[in-house]
Amino acid sequence: MRSTLRSVKFLFTAPLILALLVVINLMTWDGQWWVQWPALGLGIAWVISLLRVLRAVVVGGGLAALAAVLLNRRT
Question: Distance between CA atoms of 1 and 17, rounded to whole angstroms?
Answer without folding.
Answer: 24
